[in-house]
Every structure is written in structure tokens, then in C-alpha cells.
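Case study 2.
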Amino acid sequence: MKAKTVANAGFTLSIYLGLAIAVAPAAPPQPVSNEEITGMIAATGDAEEYKNAAVVYVLDETDVYVKKSGLATTESCQVFKILTDAGVRSNSVYRRQFDPATNNITVKSIRIHRQDGTIQDVDVSGMITQPARQGIIFWGNQQYALSLPRLAIGDAVELRVSRTGYNVAYLASADGAGDTVLSAAGKPLRPPMPGHWYDTVQFQAGHPILKKRYSVHMPKDMPLQYEVYNGSLQSSLWFDRDHNVYTWTAEDLPAFKGEPHMVARSDVATKVVMATVGSWEAKSRWFYEANESQFQPNDEIRAKVEELTAGLPNEEAKIAALNSWVADNCRYVGTTRGQHEGFTLHKSLETFRDRGGVCKDKAGMLVTMLRVLGHEAFAAMTMAGSRVEQIPADQFNHSVTVMRNADGTFRLLDPTWAPLSRETWSSREALQGIVYGTPEGQDLALSPYFAPDQNTLTCRSRGEITADGTLKTSIHMAMKGYPCTYLRRELAPHTPSGRQSVVRDALRIAPNALIEQLTFTDPYDYSSDSRLDTMIQAEDYVAGDRHVRMFHLPLLAHPLSSFLFPDAFYSVDAKERQFGFRLRATRLIRYKETLRLPDGWSVESVPDSVELDSPAAALSFEARVEGGFLTYEFELTLKKHIVPPEDYAEFKKTLDSMNQLSKEWVVCTVDRSAVTHADVR
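Prediction:
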């Protein structure tokens, strides 16, 4: 009996010990040890296992240590294994680009894990700092560069880098408050929004990743809101004495494989968006306060506004005139003002003097001029080309102008996208996430949708086919919105004679077509939408023998389509798509053509009528023959600028049908009495 009691007591004790072990506090995720890295490399396969990728990232881990000021230090470790000769070549030199005004980067170590198990430490003291390649934005970016010892297939490279700074440029702090950390340029670093931190991290890349971890060590009195998009990640939240440690982890991530003309990768690849900012309204107020002092005019700016608007019939014409002047006269070029970059707009006095700036400066110049005109105008942040999520982190790449209307609503203007355009807000910027910088603060909004009839191309043609098979036709084209803008932009860089050549090349409806007359709107004349008139003649347009003649419908060669709607001819060979299909803009394209046929010709067949309608596109076509005339009408409607995968099949059917129509023949028979000796070839 006693023995049984003792046994039960031991069993009970083991249960208590087991429970104690189970509930004992564990530590937050820790960096992978050197021994673990060696084991992970050894367990990694070859190129065949990873679909012939050039490299595979064995490990990609990041720890971000955030201070109460919002300043953060990022410690990263990346280990990638070389799988192919291409991987050897592309990694022979280590390069790391950075902005010296906003970051302080230290390459702590580079190690090469050789295939035979030996480890070679690379001397990073030989690393050079040199200017990074720059195009039209000269903000002084630099890069580190270091030639690595010769790599071989099977080797792995381990990089450890420390970075203090931010993912966007900093704003200067007038009171000097915050952590005194110097940038690479020797200036104190200040976060754009003092006391706040935010980031967006994508978990997929162009190479496979076996393990990726991203941890944020955040002061306990700085709550972090976040959301994972486009997939799922393992996540955890741990507490220590002073910090909350947020972690996201993923394993066995395949290389991201895109599709032609797809939406931005950030719209579909797995990512986490984080921010300590409480709301978009707070972000809006901060943007207003950070830039309000930049919009002061001087007498020269006031005089220019008066000059540009004098004699114009109404306020709309005045607004358009100011938008066009900034668009056409302040060239897009980025020059640095040191730490006053990023979200800080340059002073309008400087932009006006320099007649140049990037998007934020052009937007600020228009804000100033609209205020001189008496309007309530502000700068705004938007994201051109990809989606803005609901977490109020920095997700912007573009700045525009916003006006408050008399009824309290807002109107958008964009002088960056308005050169050579009658549009004050580009139709290519539909349904973009946007935050207006106002004193009271605004929530995240969307830019307006453009209906297809706001972007139209209308063609009217009347012509004849002569008995010897020559086509003679006149074409009148009218463009509005997107087609109008892009005709102007195709023509403007050329001389007047060069413009004629450009249009003649794009107009050809047959290889031997002769343009007999051609007139079109001056690309710099904004008083009306673009128009074009031409007369074309093409000999031997008709195929066939004396008694059977065949020809294609001329307008269905889609004259000027190479720059008015080239996206309607993007490849739609794929039967289905995983990601959205991006077009330039919505469109409505209408043709009506009448052809007079020679006496004695009888139309035996014309292309069948088409009537297709779907959420993304619609197509209608109908031809008829009456009294010796062949008339047809064609209409293509592109309803969405982004075609989601579920709409792609019907969209593809519509474009395939359009392309098939251009290949169809009109077949005629010729009365023998109408055949003359001249018809015999």
C-alpha cells in the first residue's frame, strides 16, 4: 500500500514537473547561431532542386531596434548559396546603395562558406564608397563596393549589415530633440514623424528563400499596429522588461514569378505593413504641418499668376492654365537640399527660380500659385502604380496637388503627369490610394475612376474601292483624354516635318499606303482636343482574280494604335492568369467606315457580327451592304484599367475577337460584264 502511494506521488510529481516545463517562459526568436548557419547551408540542395535559380537564400533575418524617438537600428544577416554560373557572376562584387543624408550603414562582416566546409572571412576594410548611378534625380546617393574572392557553385555568402536610419529621407528637427545619431554625411538623423516608426516588408523576392524572419523590438509605450497581406505568415508577440518583440517568419518561399503586364508585385506578394501612427488623419496633419511653410509666394510668382490667368473666361480655365504652366515649364529634375528631402517639399520660391523639381516640388509650386489665385490648396501623397493598404505606414511614391471645393469636397491636380495634356488629373492615375495634407486631417481616399467615355478615340472614314482594286479613303479621327494626351506626347519631341513622318508611319493601313493629305492638332495647343484628318490611297489593296475579289476592312488595321492604345494589343496568349492584368487606362474606341464598291461587284460575305460584354471589356461589330455601299461599325470598350484574374477569360475572348476581325475577308464576286481588259493582270 505504501509502495503504491509512493508511486502515485512520484507520478504526480512528474506531472507537476511536466507542467512547469510546459509553461516556463521562452525567449523571443533569437538570431541563428553560426553552427545553425553551417547546418542550414549543408542541408541546402542544388540548382535542380530550386528550378535552376541562380542563388537560393538560405537565411534572411532582420532585427529592428526602435527607440522612442522613432529612430531605428536594423541588424540583418543574409546567407545565400550560389547555384549556377550566373549566380557566380552576379555576386562577384558586393554592392550596397544608400542615402548618406538619411542612413548610417556599417557592413560588419562578409564570410564565404566554401563547398568543402571551410570558412573564409573577407576583409571589409578594402570596401570603397563611390557615387551611385543617378538619372534625373541627383540626391547624392552613394554605394559601397567590394570585390569578393572568387566564388564557385556550391559556395555560400554570409552578409551581416547594421543600418541606423530610415526607409525614407529624414526631415530636419528645429528643436534638435531626439537621439543624436549621425548619418553617413555626419548630420544628426531625425525620423520624419518624431516618435513614430513604420515599415513595409515583402516576404517574396526574385529568388527562393528557405527561411525569412523579421523582428521589431518596440518600446512598450509605442504600440504597433500591423496587418499581413497577400498570404499568411507565422507571427508572434513577446514581452521583455522594456520592449514588445513582434516577429514574422516564413519558410520555403519560392521565387516570385510574375506575369507580363501585371499589377505591382507589392499588390500580390506576401507582405506585412506596420506603423505606430494611429490613423491616416494623423499622417495627413503631419504632412500638412511639415510642408505648410514651403508655399510662400513672392512678387514674381504673383505676377506670373496674373499673366497666366488674365483674360481667361472662367475659373476652370485659370486652374487649367496654372496646372499646364507648372507641368510644361518646371522640368522634372531632382536636386538635393540635404536633409530637407523625402516628405519635405522644396520651397516654391526655389522651384520657381530653378524652373525644376521632382513631383513634390511641382505639386508645391501649383499649391502656391492656386493660393495666389484665391483657392484653398494643399499637397497630397499618393502611390502611382500600386495599392495603399489601410495601415497608415509610408506607402507612397508620388506627390500631387489637392484643392478644396466650395462645398467641402476635394479636387485633384497633378502637374507632374500633365505635360502636353489637357487632363488636369491623369486618367492613368485612376483609383489610387491618396492622403491629402490638411490642417484637420483626412482619411485615406481613392482618386476618381475614369469611365471609358472620358478616354475616347473616334474614327470616321468614307472611301471607295475602284475597279482595279485601289483603295481611296479619307479618315477623320477625334481624341479625348488618354488618346489625346498620348498623341501629343508622341508628336511634341519632333520638328513639324518630323511629326508628319511619325504620323505617316503609324497611320499605314496597307504596306504601300500613300498619305495624300494630313493635318493634325498642334501638340502645344490646349484649346481643344486632338484631331487628325487624312486622305490615303493604296493600290492593289484588293486580292483575288477577275471574278472573285477579297479585302480587309481598312479601319480594322487600327491606324495610330501603336501609340493611342498599344495596350489593347498586349499578349493575351495565356489561357488564365494568377495576377491582375494592367492596362494604361480605360478606353472607348469607335469606328464607322463606309466604302463604295465598283459597279458589278456583289458582296458575298462579310465578317460575322460580334456582340460581347463582360465586366472588363465589351466589343460590338456589325457590317451591312446597301446600294453598292459597305458600311460597318466597330466599338471596343475597355472598362477597367486593371483586369482581375476572374475577369481575364472574358477579357481575352474580347481581344481575341477584335484581332480576328482584322484578319477576316470581305469576299465579292464581279459580274462578268463589268470585267474589262484592264482587269486582266
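The chain has twelve helices and 37 strands.
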